[in-house]
């Protein structure tokens, strides 16, 4: 009656097996699509970046040192909730920070150190974290994302969150509007290309930091002749008038320690028609070796989390990626 029945059954079994095997991936794919849809175009909310375990914040050798080695923390022991009795983080604070410049706190572990108010705006210093309330353990703030293998402040000035701002200034490479370019500066300290961001000064609002850092690092406004300065300021006004938030929160940065860490606000300022920023004369400032319009491609290698930021920006503008 059904001569091909065994064949049909065999095929059905294969189909079911394939579906089952892929079920997980299909589910995951669907979840990603829904996520994309909810957090995508038009949403003002920061992009929900996949939360990653400390990766850069567990780099073997602390940046700009030769021999400061972090205590090795396995993936499974990053979280403070996992007991790790053998844990003995290396205590390191750079000489530059110890010297007590204006951007650095005093050592709160010293007996007569001035009191720092954490988890609030302490005088003019913003000590609140985007991650919520962080814990204070033995007088020191504790990294909300877990262990890093190093305690003290490393080369970061503030105990707890160190706030930065990253302006991502973009334009189209040409009239096809397929490839997006952004203003990148080459850092003097390690030669890596990066977004021309910087630390939020005490008492400064982020919008001012974004503009100031871009002006200083990518346009070298310090050294521009006065009449050019006026022109630059006007263009900057126009460009920085409207931006979209790309990310705000904790950053997995190689300088992070158990007691001090980077947080940032990354904003995109886009020149759709290439008639404002496109006309800027880029000029590397003090902290930079070079500055350029860099194509955003899958291969673009950037400092710390900057790679994730420009990827998000490219996707937002539906650029080739
Ligand atoms: C302080 O930082 C928090 C995030 O940690 C931010 O939401 C808030 O706007 C900042 N406040 C000021 C006055 O800059």
TrEMBL record:
One Gene Ontology molecular-function label: ADP-ribose diphosphatase activity
Record flagged with keyword Electron transport: no
Residues passing through the membrane, by range: 6-24
Nudix hydrolase domain segment(s): 161-316
Coiled-coil ranges (or none): none
SUPFAM superfamilies reported for this sequence: Nudix (SSF55811)
A matching Pfam family: NUDT9_N
Keywords of the record: Membrane, Transmembrane, Transmembrane helix
Gene3D superfamilies per UniProt: Nucleoside Triphosphate Pyrophosphohydrolase
Classification via PANTHER family: ADP-RIBOSE PYROPHOSPHATASE, MITOCHONDRIAL (PTHR13030:SF8), NUDIX HYDROLASE (PTHR13030)
Identification of the protein by name: Nudix hydrolase domain-containing protein
Organism: Patella caerulea
């Amino acid at each position: 009656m059904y001569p091909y029945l065994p064949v049909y059954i065999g095929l059905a079994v294969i189909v079911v097996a394939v579906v089952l095997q892929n079920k997980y991936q299909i589910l995951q794919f669907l979840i990603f699509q829904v996520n994309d849809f909810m957090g995508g175009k038009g949403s003002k909310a920061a992009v929900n970046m996949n939360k990653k375990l400390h990766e850069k914040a567990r780099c073997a050798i602390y940046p700009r040192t030769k021999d400061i080695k972090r205590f090795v923390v396995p993936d499974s022991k990053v979280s403070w909730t996992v007991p790790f009795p053998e844990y003995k983080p290396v205590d390191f604070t750079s000489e530059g920070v110890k010297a007590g410049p204006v951007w650095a706190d005093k050592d709160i572990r010293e007996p007569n150190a001035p009191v720092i108010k954490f988890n609030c705006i302490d005088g003019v210093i913003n000590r609140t974290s985007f991650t919520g309330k962080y814990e204070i353990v033995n007088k020191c703030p504790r990294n909300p994302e877990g262990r890093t293998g190093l305690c003290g402040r490393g080369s970061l000035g503030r105990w707890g969150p160190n706030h930065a701002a990253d302006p991502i200034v973009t334009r189209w490479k040409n009239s096809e509007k397929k490839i997006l370019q952004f203003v990148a500066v080459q850092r003097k300290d390690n030669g890596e290309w990066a977004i021309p961001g910087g630390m939020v000064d005490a008492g400064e609002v982020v919008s001012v930091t974004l503009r100031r850092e871009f002006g200083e690092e990518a346009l070298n406004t310090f050294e521009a002749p006065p009449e050019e300065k006026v022109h630059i300021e006007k263009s900057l006004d126009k460009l920085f008038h409207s931006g979209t938030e790309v990310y705000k929160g904790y950053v997995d940065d190689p300088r992070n320690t158990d007691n001090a860490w980077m947080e940032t606000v990354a904003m995109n300022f886009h020149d759709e028609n290439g008639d404002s920023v496109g006309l800027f004369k880029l000029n590397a400032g003090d902290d930079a070796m070079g500055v350029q319009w860099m194509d955003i491609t899958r291969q673009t290698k950037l400092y710390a989390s900057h790679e994730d930021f420009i990827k998000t920006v490219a996707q937002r503008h539906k650029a080739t990626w």
